[in-house]
Design a protein that fits this description.
Elements: E1 10-15, H1 24-32, E2 41-45, H2 48-56, E3 61-64
Antiparallel strand pairs: 1-2, 1-3
């Protein structure tokens, strides 16, 4: 597989609230960020697209620079 270049900064995103009762589009956005369960954290590249995803579901997440 091709190796992805991680240029630029990253953001650590953690799912802190349950997805139960949330809109289907919000659940899909959380999955798109790579989060699977409560207290699961991922490092994502800081791009405008990822920032938009984080803003959409900010009430479910904790972000660290």
């Amino acid at each position: 597989m091709a190796e992805s270049k991680q240029s630029g900064s990253t953001i650590k995103v953690t799912l802190v609230r349950s997805l139960i009762g949330t809109m289907r589009a919000h659940r899909a956005t959380v999955r798109g960020l790579g989060l699977r369960r409560i207290n699961h954290s991922v490092q994502v590249i800081d791009t405008p697209a990822v920032r938009g995803m984080i803003n959409k579901v900010a009430y479910l997440l904790k972000c660290e620079g």
